Amino acid sequence: MWCMPHYPVSPFFLRLWFLGGVQCLAIVGYAHVLFVVMAMVYLSWLAQICVLRFLSSSLMGYFMH
Fold this sequence. Notes:
Keywords: Membrane, Transmembrane, Transmembrane helix. The chain is mainly alpha-helical. 86% of the residues lie in helices and 0% in strands.
């Protein structure tokens, strides 16, 4: 009977903690997805620049000969 006074408060805090954890996970997951998308965009942009540079240099070399 000594731990009963805490019982009405505990589910509320548990629910609050659970919702906070879910929100935190959602934010982290969203940030992770955003980071992955940004990294993919950046890498594709970098790859395009490298390919364009390679093509332009090879074309220049081809036309110089």
